[in-house]
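User: What would this chain look like folded?
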Amino acid sequence: MPLLELRDVDATYGRIRALRGISLYVEQGEIVTLIGANGAGKTTTLRAISGLLRPVAGTIAFDGLDCTTASPDRIVRRGLSHSPEGRRVFARMTVRENLELGAFTRTAADEIAADLERVFGIFPRLRERVDQKAGTLSGGEQQMLAIARALMSRPRLLLLDEPSLGLSPILVQTIFTVIREINAAGTTILLIEQNAQQALQIATRGYVLEVGKIAYTDSAKALLASEAVRAAYLGGAA
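Assistant: Here's the prediction, encoded as structure tokens.
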């Protein structure tokens, strides 16, 4: 049984039908990426999975939990965490306070302290900024904080929405290296990424969304080699 499975999911914003029968799955240990143009439904898919948007049809199951009816906090407690598009850090709170909020479902102080050390090991810059207000961090530092905060719940599945958006090329490489390391340490990842080529290079499999529907799905290697995918999303590059 997949760790995450969506079957025929429809979702709307008012009268706008954002998802049209989306079906996908993620196996334990994979990096799976969703690519597509702006407005294709990628962010909506992640919001539906994490309980922030209720589908109007279809089913979403994470580790046996029905995410179409469960509250977001119950989904987090089950082992799913969401690093949203735009970072969404709490600007007036310190780095430490943001990270501690990421562990709001947990009570064991020693384990939380150990995970603080873990994320500081992944993102040493955050240790240097630990007492600094999050709103004063650079864009790259805020992205590091958003991912680190999501890791503080010890997720089995991490949803990442545009982690490299607006970052310099050097920081983009850093973020992708970290994503690989997080996955290698045992966390399954579902990734939305504007840089489709980079995403497919680190992913196991991929789905291409077009106007709320899945247009293509295959191994990441096959999608990279697809002429149709290259022409539409990879700038024609091989």
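Residues 68 and 106 are 23 Å apart (CA to CA). If you want, I can go into more detail on any region.
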